[in-house]
Amino acid sequence: MRTTELFLGFVASSPIILLVAAQSAQELINSVLNPPPGSEHYSSYSSEIYYNHTLYNQTPIASTNYDRLEASAKLLLPAPAYDYAAGGAGLEKTVASNRAAFDKWQIAPRVMRPVQPRRDLSITLFNRTLPAPIVMAPVGVQTLFHSTGERATSKVFGELGLPYTLSTASSTGFSDVAASNGAGNPRWYQLYWPSDDDLTRSYLETAKANGYEVLVVTVDTWDLGWRTRDLDRGFFPFIEGVGVQIGLEDPVAHEKLGFNPLASNATMEQKQMAALYHTITTSRGISPVWENLWKLREVWGDSPILLKGVQSAEDAKLASQWGLNGVIVSNHGGRQIDGAIASLDALTSIVEAVNGSMPVGFDGGIRSGADIFKALALGADFVQLGRPILWGLAHEGEKGVRHVLKSLLAELEITVGLAGCSDLGQVNKDLVTANI
Ligand SMILES: Cc1cc2nc3c(=O)[nH]c(=O)nc-3n(C[C@H](O)[C@H](O)[C@H](O)COP(=O)(O)O)c2cc1C
Ligand SMILES: *[C@@H]1O[C@H](CO)[C@@H](O)[C@H](O)[C@H]1NC(C)=O
Ligand SMILES: *[C@@H]1O[C@H](CO)[C@@H](O)[C@H](O)[C@H]1NC(C)=O
Ligand SMILES: *[C@@H]1O[C@H](CO)[C@@H](O)[C@H](O)[C@H]1NC(C)=O
Ligand SMILES: *[C@@H]1O[C@H](CO)[C@@H](O)[C@H](O)[C@H]1NC(C)=O
């Protein structure tokens, strides 16, 4: 009885009949309920959830709805950790604008097109074919959210073949993340550009040696924003030695410090000094400038270099003129300037200015598969996930991350199909309408 209901549910929601007109009833049911290994697609995740409940009375580890996911993560996390991730600059107007901008656009679907159960979400980016246009945003200090931190997030992105970006403020080092991410998987490295060129060179060389193939230079956080939630409790994890692992492990930093803070005989004072050294060299209030980009190119060679934190069409054009290989439209999740434009509002003019000359990534406020669809329809080539993944991480580490990522992929595939598209080439501005 339950199986029958389940089966009818599937037929109602996917155009399977088109595919398998000659199948027997049993074959059809089996192909949906027990897809042969390798034939599952992202939207199969919903079948898995329904099936698990029917068979084992089991429900997912966390909600499939972002608001409920964040609410349960909040209950699981220490208040300073929750606020560190949830908070933004000042009155948090930019955080709110990032979200509100998604409501200005609505999806206008097309119907009666020959769409099949498996939609092609793949893209080609920097010499890689990726199964979906989704990248882990660089997020520091992930052990705040679960003891497994970056190891868990990088593992799950690796499993799914999606790029993982390691932050300079990581609580786990280059080689440990490379190992958990898995050989051959796409790995990116996000640089907070140190004020000391020797350190910069060393970080980039270690990144290269560990298989990080795209360099993301964050240009909006050379000084820390006015983060009211953290200021009110004086919470700054880096001073306590969390989120400084890249500095602690760095051989050039050891030379400059005159000691190795990770040596078994290192004192507490030495560890703290090394933590401060990394934090200060990577955020001491001196802006990076276009004229110094050659220093990165010299070390990074011809491999891709992207600028993250671009919000103006003029800067995107300059990025192209200065030989960058792409930009990521981002305002750091509203954590840097209060009362700034929404990142999604910046996207359209940047896409126009860039005019296909280089890839344009996007982040800021993505909370659902439908949000991803909107960003892609407005011209983003790929999107980055930030806070949703952290809330997943709070739910038992990799299990929660896997659930959140698979949920977003499933909803994206479902939305692409229900909007009448078979692949991302068909997802364009005609499918969204401004709601003003
Ligand atoms: C807790 C936290 C830590 C972050 N750390 C970094 C970082 O180390 N480097 C960086 O470039 N961006 C960092 N970001 C910004 C993200 O890369 C991304 O731009 C932002 O999270 C997007 O907004 P959203 O999460 O609201 O979608 C961080 C964001 C959060 C929430
Ligand atoms: C479904 O159950 C299996 C077996 O217990 C488990 O491995 C899988 O993670 C579950 N899936 C979901 C979405 O809960
Ligand atoms: C692109 O990838 C191919 C095969 O994966 C490799 O042989 C080639 O060297 C790569 N090119 C660049 C520019 O990285
Ligand atoms: C730790 O050991 C190293 C090498 O054995 C030595 O050079 C260093 O001075 C020691 N550090 C401290 C703080 O004792
Ligand atoms: C944008 O790119 C297209 C195709 O490459 C080109 O034909 C067009 O002239 C460009 N538009 C502008 C404004 O540069």
UniProtKB/TrEMBL annotation:
Signal sequence, start to end: 1-22
UniProt binding sites for FMN: P138, V139, G140, Q190, T218, K308, S330, D363, G364, G365, I366, R367, G386, R387
GO molecular function: FMN binding; oxidoreductase activity
SUPFAM superfamilies: FMN-linked oxidoreductases (SSF51395)
FMN hydroxy acid dehydrogenase domain sequence ranges: 58-436
InterPro entries from the UniProt entry: Aldolase_TIM, Alpha-hydoxy_acid_DH_FMN, FMN-dep_DH, FMN_HAD, FMN_hydac_DH_AS
Entry cofactors: FMN
Residues the record marks as active site: H332
Binding-site residues for glyoxylate, renumbered to this chain: Y84, S167, Y192, R227, H332, R335
Descriptive protein name: FMN-dependent alpha-hydroxy acid dehydrogenase
